[in-house]
Amino acid sequence: MKPFFKNKIILYISLFVVIFGSIVSYIVFSMVRINLVNFNQSLFISLIVFASAFFSGIITIILFSKLANKLVIQRQKIENQFSELKKFKLAVEYASDHIIITDPEGIILYANNAAETITGYSKEEMIGKKAGSKDLWGGQMNSKFYKNLWDTINHKKKVFSGEITNKRKNGQIYISLSKISPVLNGKNEVIFFVGIERDITHEKEVDKMKTEFISLASHQLRTPLSAMKWFLEMLLDGDAGELNNEQKEMVGNIDLSNQRMISLVNGLLNVSRIESGRISVKPQLTDLSKLVKEILVGMEPMIKEKNLKLVVSIHKKMGEILIDPSLIQEVYRNLITNSVKYSKQDGEITIFLSNDDKNVTFQISDEGMGIPQREQSKIFEKFH
User: Nearest Cα to 325, choosing from 363, 301, 292?
Assistant: First the structure.
């Protein structure tokens, strides 16, 4: 409400008071002419009526002025809220991610521009249909996946986050990183769902190319490294002539570096196999206590070099478990190697191996510098 509008209200009230007072005065003086009242009485009545009307008008003006101020403040709040809502709507409408809003049954109520761009369906085609159904971009995952998704967002009332394979209107398959959030009312009832999807097909293709490159490069590197290892071992064994101590030390350092390169290449190959799903798992009955002891025997020179105290606690009734011995040995070796590598001179390493009816527990602790807290979230990332 503008100040001009407030002034108009006050003007109308003032005019009403004047007109009302004039009408009452006219009536009273008319009564004088027909001798219903004398002049003094009429003047007295007119003054009382006019004064009452005047003061009533003043009070009315004050009340209306306060009301007008409240209306102005309220209108400003509404205009600010509308402005913020408009900004929010524009942000959602032109966001790069596919955003939809559905009712509690998953029927689409709203879709933004990116939803049209990514899926190929128009808003008119989407609204009123079930999100993620075969009628639109969904239906590419198995029924168990969709059942678990619905159970998460509708019954457990939790946010679902994961990768989903979808199909565009033109039939092209794409992968999206999806997050579906239930919105609840005060009674903890779902009133609608908000789904946000980002097309990560290109990122997946780039990752695949990286994995294939790593696999190819690793295979190509392994052959010359193996040949180098063979020749270095021949030199150290004196097949090409006896080496003096200085030469042995230099060749030994080269051999050690070569072994590290071979380990790195094997690690790269394992990563590429895992990511491509080509890693071969061959479970067999394995004695983990024996496996850990074998690793420690192989690392004895490194442990003695740093004069480390080793405390090993292995459950007496470990028994054998069904597992791939090569893969679990790689895991244990990496953990123990890191512990030895980053332990301080004359430090202590504690290894604990135990099991119960369901789980096997392997713990290792040392007195090294540890992993900084800011880096801990990256422990399971590649090459960290």
Answer: 292
Listed in sequence order, the DSSP H helices in the chain are 3-33, 39-93, 113-119, 123-126, 143-150, 201-236, 245-276, 288-298, 300-305, 325-342
**What are the structure tokens assigned to 44, written together?**
């007295």
Q: Which pLDDT score is estimated for 3?
A: 47
Torsional sign, CA 108, 111, 116, 122: positive
Q: Is the pTM of this model over 0.85?
A: no
Burial of 182 (0-12, 13-18, 19+ CB in 10 A): buried
**Adjacent-strand bridge partners of 350:** 311, 365
Is the pLDDT score of 53 beyond 70?
A: no
- Average confidence (pLDDT) over 60-77: 73
The C-alpha angle 378, 383, 384, rounded to 5 degrees, equals 30
Closest to 137 in 3D by CA, of 159, 170, 177: 170
The secondary structure of residue 365, as a DSSP letter, is: E
